Amino acid sequence: MTVSPDAVVLVAGSANLDFAVRAPHVPAAGETVLGHGFATFPGGKGANQAVACARAGGARTRMLLALGEDAFAAPVEASLREAGVTCEIVRVRDAATGTAFVCVSDDGENAITVTPGANARLHPAHLPALDGVRCLLLQLETPLPTVVAWARAARVAGVTVILNAAPAQALPAELLTAVDVLVVNEGELATVAGHRGGIAADLAAIDVAEVIVTLGARGCCARLDGGLHVQPGFRVDAVDTTAAGDTFCGTLAAAIARGLPVAEALRRACAASALACTRHGAQASVPAADEVDALLAGFADPAGDAYDDLAAYCAAAR
Question: Which ranges does the record mark as transmembrane (predicted)?
Fold first, then answer.
């Protein structure tokens, strides 16, 4: 896929080393579960999304990140560079590289605990010049005041701001007014909207031009120009949902930077996210553009009933 020189995405956010264990199920509070597999993977929402954006093709991807001066930093940086991401690294001497502890159940669900480490040392002044940047992609694993400052600087510069509001938290109005595209899952949507009702009602309650909610295997729903657009998901055999949402966000950002129609951008993002669920790990699970193309070519568009069922699900009160 040809990369457009004008399609540049800057991802500013977190980078971690993930410590992942497989287990029959995710432990409940106070429960001990015997695992049956362990591995380390480069991760972090920001880094995962940067890898997904780079692999999506058609856009150049840069990333602003912070790493400690420790052994955990090397595999994180190497994974980004191998994916084709241009790294702009803040080296932190007195904090470790961020880490995450991930439990993945045998049915593909996960529970994650994150220790921010160096990610917490990213400041507003670290944002590089935005000349030539079309989209700025942000998450919430770095300090909220820093995210707000970055979003506002991008808005002033005329850069499209995409925010993945994860992990879930209430967001200040000064951040929402600087965001062009907000991406959330169902739980994050309820938190940002104040949990007013059904998905459609919650989407309407958020003062951002475009709001997209990912719905797992169901697909996604977007509020665009005052109306709803739904995209059914792609049926796959899921083994690990880690980084599925990050894959969606990175693929979406690349598509927006390329100027693709929203419907096509959402379809590609859903397809890439589905493929990510068929593999273990975070960045290791992110598909390449040709894999997404192959999945889309092999799937006929869902029947009208699939769209109607998803629209009904989004409209229903919770």
Answer: none
User: In this structure, what token pair is assigned to residue 203?
Assistant: 């989407």
Residue pLDDT, tens place only, 54-75: 999 999 999 999 999 999 999 9
Q: Is 18 labelled a binding residue? A: yes
Question: Is 132 known to sit in a ligand binding site?
Answer: no
Number of structural domains in the chain: 1
**DSSP string across 247-316:** HHHHHHHHHHHHT--HHHHHHHHHHHHHHHTTSSSSGGGPPPHHHHHHHHHHSPPPPHHHHHHHHHHHHS
In a domain, 37, yes or no: no
pLDDT digits (tens, 9 = 90+) for 94-105: 999 999 998 989
125 assigned binding-site residue: no
Is 242 annotated as belonging to a binding site? yes
| pLDDT band, residue 207 (cuts 50/70/90) | very high
What is the C-alpha to C-alpha distance for residues 260 and 95, in angstroms, rounded to an integer?
A: 40
Q: Where are the beta strands (DSSP E) in the chain?
A: 8-12, 16-23, 37-43, 60-68, 86-92, 98-105, 110-115, 135-138, 160-164, 181-185, 210-214, 219-224, 227-232
Which CATH number fits the domain that encloses residue 257?
A: 3.40.1190.20
293 is known as an active-site residue: no
List C-alpha distances in Å: 275 to 49, 107, 211, 270, 286: 15, 16, 23, 9, 7
Q: Is residue 104 situated within a structural domain? A: no
**Which residue segment(s) compose the domain that 240 sits in?**
8-15+43-98+117-315
| Within a domain: 2 | no
Q: What is the pTM of this model?
A: 0.93
Among the options 131, 202, 237, 246, which is catalytic?
246
Residue 296 lies in a domain: yes
